[in-house]
Design a protein that fits this description.
This protein is mainly α and 129 residues long. It is built from 5 helices and no strands.
Length: 129
């Protein structure tokens, strides 16, 4: 009963369909670089967390306060920042996917959809019920 030797994945599967020799000398455009897309995705997730923490501003109590309009403006401003960063992260990862065949950025797309749902709920008044 000896240990089995690990089988290595073929190079096409390890590198997303592009061989290492095909990547040498190739530089990604700035917005399509892997580290830029990852940074924007982490930043979008952090912004989304902050967005969820300030959700009470437009909730039942925040919408009945004397400064409810200021609460709504602040909440929508942060939502624009969160949505903008989420869209930038998604576009960055999609551009990289176009170049090297990396996987679909499901998390970045989910953040965009979450921001859109929060915007719809805010504008229709569902949070202030």
């Amino acid at each position: 009963m000896g240990r089995k030797k690990k089988q290595r994945l073929p190079e096409e599967l390890r590198t997303g369909g592009v061989s290492e020799s095909g990547r040498k000398g190739y530089t990604y455009p700035f917005f399509a670089r892997p580290d830029v897309g990852s940074f924007l995705t982490v930043l979008a997730a952090a912004c989304f967390l902050v967005q969820l923490m300030i959700l009470p501003l437009v909730g039942p109590c925040g919408s009945r306060a004397p400064h409810a309009l200021c609460n709504l403006i602040g909440f929508l401003g942060m939502l624009c920042v969160t949505g903008g960063v989420a869209v930038a992260a998604t576009v960055s990862k999609l551009r990289r996917r176009k170049i090297d065949g990396s996987p679909l950025p499901a998390f970045s797309i989910a953040l965009c959809v979450g921001c859109l749902l929060i915007l719809i709920c805010t504008l229709t008044g569902l949070f202030s019920i």
